[in-house]
Design brief:
With 568 residues, the chain is an alpha/beta fold. Among the domains are: 162 residues, Rossmann fold (3-Layer(aba) Sandwich); 134 residues, 2-Layer Sandwich (Alpha-Beta Plaits), CATH 3.30.70. 43% of the residues lie in helices and 12% in strands. The chain contains 24 helices and eleven strands. The strands form three sheets. It has a five-stranded parallel β-sheet, with helices on both faces. Helix 3 packs parallel to helix 4 and helix 9 crosses helix 10. The C terminus is likely disordered.
């Protein structure tokens, strides 16, 4: 195959989830941390929604890796079971010794007893339900009853539902609202944007051993992005086929040609509508030719405002537009004699106003002469109002709104600190209000209601420093995502970092508040690096205690995108 050709030690784009190749970009890393925090909090049911091929199974596998050892995972891969069978399936996964033909109450009693044993041993049980959109409504109701198993203070069983967007529709009926109200955290896996797809392709190649320059050209990335629609499984299929095509052609770069070949060879790659300028040009030429023939054959006589045009485009009647508006020395005829004067008057104006052959158009524009120039003045006022605001929008908004959009998505990271940055916009539109906008510092601190009273001086100082850093740093730089912690743990953050071996680098730590899936967190970053390789080397040099938190490299562009808001 192509592995040796590109210097790879393993296939980089296999569709089977491999936790070693987990891509933390595209909000995946932040969403994963938020789910871990929500599970550890032990409250309610968690919902993770994603389109087919968006990476739900990979998130599920990564949770098994990142969750503490005190949390046991029960994995339910086939949820298409009746309410009676679902209990037996869970009991089987938990290895409960049940007699043949055990009834529902007996199974429920055995489950409750085992969960109490785990709780007494300080162990927590979480159940992952994949393809939850296929679960019958009665079975979903049985799942809700399982979530009632609890002690006086804690839930005995955590439930995480992984499903396609159809799961939202299944939870909408009124008679199942009891389950929907038990869902305390919801996350949506967004599709990857074009720039994130470029980073994903490069990340996968280097994770598989590649060490050269980027393999996928900008044109290839653009085509793969459009054909895959941002879905990771499709990206893997297309990238694998494109690498094979490049290998067959003896090339070490994947260009548009290889990407186009991969798309043609894929089930989902075609046929699809694309705009072809050549076809559009042919249609345009045909339409223009038909219009010329229509005009030459006198079709214009059937259009009222064109009926006054004669051969050669000159007017044939005194009442035509060019004659009335002509600056000729000939006096204008009396309006009631237009028919009689048509023959003698038409010759001379035909020579004098031969140039304004398109004069009938002005007749339409000034069809209401009483509309004096004063009526036109509002237009310039409206046109000049927009440019007055444009410079402020250009200089301020891109700093915090670099990611879009879109889609936004239920699970975009949103932060409380930089969220107040768009306030400087009124400065350009209303210069008189500039003094109030000159002090934006107090605004970011206002939303921090839940943790402001408990944060240390160190946390407050780093929050302010991070805000300034996000405003001024180059978007092409990188940092290391150390962890996400609860706001209530901010007071002990400095001591924890010192204990973890980061005493000399405390002032290189960046902090910002974020809310993911309804959970308010403190995002902890380290360093400011000029390249991804430099950040990776720094990550490898972190103390062992910090590496246990599974840190990863994040581009500043994505961090600013997270500031715009990943929430569930």
């Amino acid at each position: 195959m192509y592995y040796e050709h590109f210097g790879l030690r393993e296939p980089p784009f296999r569709i089977t989830p491999d936790t070693r190749l987990f891509f933390p970009g595209g909000s995946r890393g932040a969403i994963l941390d938020a789910i871990v925090y929500a599970i550890a909090s032990g409250e309610g049911i968690i919902k993770v929604i994603g389109e087919v091929g968006s990476g739900k199974t990979m998130i599920c596998r990564m949770l098994e890796v990142k969750l503490p050892e005190s949390i046991e995972v029960v994995y339910l891969a086939n949820p298409s079971l009746s309410p009676e069978n679902i209990l037996h399936a869970i009991a089987f996964e938990m290895k409960l010794p049940l007699p043949p033909g055990a009834g529902r109450l007996e199974v429920m009693h055995a489950l409750h007893a085992r969960l109490l044993e785990k709780h007494a041993d300080n162990r927590q049980v979480v159940m992952f339900v994949e393809e939850a959109q296929r679960m019958p409504l009665d079975t979903l109701e049985e799942i809700r009853l399982l979530s009632n198993l609890e002690t006086e203070r804690e839930k005995l069983l955590q439930i995480v539902l992984f499903g396609q967007p159809e799961l939202e529709r299944n939870l909408s009926p009124t008679h199942i609202r009891q389950l929907k109200e038990r869902i305390t955290h919801g996350f949506v896996l967004p599709r990857l944007e074009a720039e994130e797809i470029r980073e994903y392709l490069d990340f996968r190649m280097r994770s598989a051993g590649y060490k050269g320059p980027p393999v996928f050209s900008a044109g290839a990335v653009k085509r793969i992005s459009r054909a895959s629609e941002g879905l990771i499984r499709r990206i893997n299929v297309l990238a694998d086929k494109a690498l094979l095509s490049a290998y067959a052609n003896g090339r070490h770069e994947v260009t548009r040609r290889e990407a186009r070949s991969a798309i043609r060879d894929s089930e989902f790659g075609g046929p699809r509508w694309t705009f072809d300028w050549r076809v559009a040009g042919l249609f345009g030429a045909a339409a223009l030719g038909a219009g010329v023939m229509w005009f030459a054959q006198g079709g214009y006589r059937h259009v009222p405002w064109l009926a006054g045009l004669g051969e050669g485009g000159a007017p044939t009647t005194v009442a035509s537009g060019p004659v009335v508006r002509s600056t000729s020395e000939s006096p204008p005829p009396v309006s009631g004699q237009a028919g009689a004067a048509a023959a003698p008057v038409a010759d001379e104006p035909r020579v004098e106003v031969a140039a304004p052959a398109i004069a009938p158009v002005p007749r339409v524009e000034v069809a209401a002469p009483p509309a004096s120039p004063a009526d036109i003045t509002p237009a310039p006022r409206v046109e000049t109002a927009a440019p007055a605001v444009t410079p402020a929008a250009i200089t301020s908004a891109p700093r915090f709104e670099t990611s879009t959009p879109a889609v936004v998505a239920e699970a975009r990271v949103e932060t409380t600190a930089p969220a107040a940055a768009p306030e400087p916009r009124p400065e350009a539109g209303a210069p008189a209000e500039t003094p109030p906008a000159a002090s934006p510092e107090p605004a970011p601190a206002a939303p921090a209601r839940s943790g402001a009273g408990r944060e240390s001086a160190y946390v407050a100082r780093r929050l302010t420093a991070t805000e300034e850093w996000l405003k001024t740093a180059d978007a092409s730089r990188y940092s290391i995502q150390l962890m996400h912690i609860g706001i209530d743990r901010g007071a002990g953050l400095e001591a924890s970092l010192r204990h973890g071996g980061l005493g000399a680098d405390l002032e290189r730590v960046w902090l910002y508040r974020t809310r993911i899936g309804g959970v308010e967190l403190l995002s902890v970053l380290l360093g400011d690096f000029s390249s991804q390789d430099e950040a990776r080397r720094a990550l490898q040099g972190l103390p062992a205690a910090l590496r246990q938190a599974k840190p990863f490299v994040r581009p500043l562009r994505e961090i600013r995108g997270g500031v715009a808001g990943v929430s569930g």
